[in-house]
Design brief:
This protein has 3 domains: 148 residues, no CATH class; 146 residues, no CATH class; 41 residues, no CATH class. It has 10 helices and 21 strands.
Length: 382
């Protein structure tokens, strides 16, 4: 049995040498195959669809600087983002006319373009009618120069000691009948804010996902070989947490998809998906299949949003890609959750009324006692 360091911010073994460390991925990586290591690593990344056109970084760790759209600013708690933030403004938000700044941004210390904000140009119309101010420059990244003790080394990445400078990005595509050239200038500014998690939280999410891989059906791993991982999960009350069974993240000790409640097979983690046998999802190849998605992916029990940070260890699991597609931006309710609402849904099957199942308070998610699910896909329909 492994005993961990008593320091609450350290997950190394007791009486270890050197510095304390919360993050210790060797707890699973020393025994995992390469595919499963990569699976866990990718789960710790941000992957916004179409992110490049919004100035977002892709496939970088969740503990990174975030972009806050100006229109979402009132919804967020900026203190959540320990790794920094930058505010994205559209020209129509920052300007009221050519070279005329909206008065709400004049002498406003909380939003300063070139400091904690930038303007994103996405159309030629905005670029021509609301152009950058004459003294503005394209955003750039500068690294710290030990020789000059200044930030004066141009960089294309955000690693190391860097600063952002400049005022705007160009993400203007040549589309339709527009014969002008594409304008793509300035580096990505940060990650999609709802996907953010600080480094320690991100690590614990990955530790949970590693444990769930070990508990898949036909897993090649013996859980007794992962005493250090088990000790980490135990230390943070994640090894025997009741939420696994209550939310159907696991059932009877096996990893399950929380939506359909089928057992996750280990081979599904890395096999590419096919929609041939998925009724009602024939168009999903454009949404999921085009990204070479695997059959099983990271599954969030609660949708990621701006108002709160939802990428936390008790709300991550593995789930089928098709179930993710069906669920969309909805919370995944377990039968246990719905039973507590006491909202019964009945149907008349020709032989009288009978209980179909229980619904959430919004009545857009129903689950039967056997786990069957009905999700409202448009208002008034199931």
């Amino acid at each position: 049995m492994i005993h961990l360091c008593e320091n609450p911010n350290c997950n190394l073994i007791a009486n270890h040498r050197g510095n304390h460390s919360f993050i210790y991925k060797k707890a699973w990586e020393t025994k995992f195959n390469d595919d499963d290591i990569n699976k866990i690593q990718k789960a710790g990344y941000c992957t916004p669809r179409g992110g490049a056109k919004g100035g977002y970084q892709n496939h970088v760790n969740r503990n990174s600087k975030v972009i806050i759209p100006y229109e979402k600013l009132s919804e967020v708690n900026l203190d959540n983002y320990k790794d920094g933030y930058v505010i994205r403004l559209f020209p129509s938000q920052y300007f009221t006319a050519k070279h005329t700044i909206n008065e709400i941004f004049i002498d406003n210390p909380s939003i300063i373009v070139s400091d904690n904000a930038f303007v994103l140009y996405r159309t030629y119309e905005d670029y021509e009618t609301l152009p950058p101010l004459p003294n503005w420059k394209i955003r750039s990244i500068l690294k710290y120069n030990n020789g000059t003790q200044k930030y004066d080394i141009p960089s294309n990445d955000r690693r190391g000691n860097i600063i952002d400078c400049g005022h705007y990005l160009l993400r203007i595509s040549n589309s339709g009948t527009n014969k002008k050239q594409n304008l793509f200038e300035g580096p990505a500014q940060g990650i999609f804010a709802p996907e953010y998690a600080d480094a320690n939280t991100n690590f614990l999410c990955q530790a949970v996902l590693a444990w769930l891989i070990i508990k898949t059906e036909h897993s090649p791993y013996n859980e007794d070989d992962f005493e250090h991982l088990k000790a980490i999960l135990q230390k943070h009350n994640l090894l025997n947490s009741p939420h696994y069974e209550n939310d159907y993240i696991m059932h009877n000790g096996k990893t399950t998809c929380p939506l359909c409640q089928r057992v996750i097979m280990h081979n599904e983690l890395n096999e590419l998906i096919s929609f041939d046998d998925e009724e009602g999802l024939t168009n999903s190849t454009e949404q999921v299949g085009s990204t070479r998605s695997t059959k099983v992916n990271l599954f969030h029990m609660v949708p990621l949003c701006y108002a709160t940070l939802e990428n936390i260890p008790t709300q991550v699991s593995w789930g089928h890609a098709t179930c993710n597609t069906r669920l969309g931006q909805r919370q995944c309710f377990s039968y246990h959750d719905l039973l507590e609402t006491e909202i019964e849904i009945e149907i008349n099957d020709g032989q009288g009324q009978r209980l179909l199942g229980y619904a959430n308070t919004a009545q857009n998610f129903i689950r039967s006692q056997t786990g069957d699910v009905w999700i409202r896909i448009s208002k008034g329909e199931y």
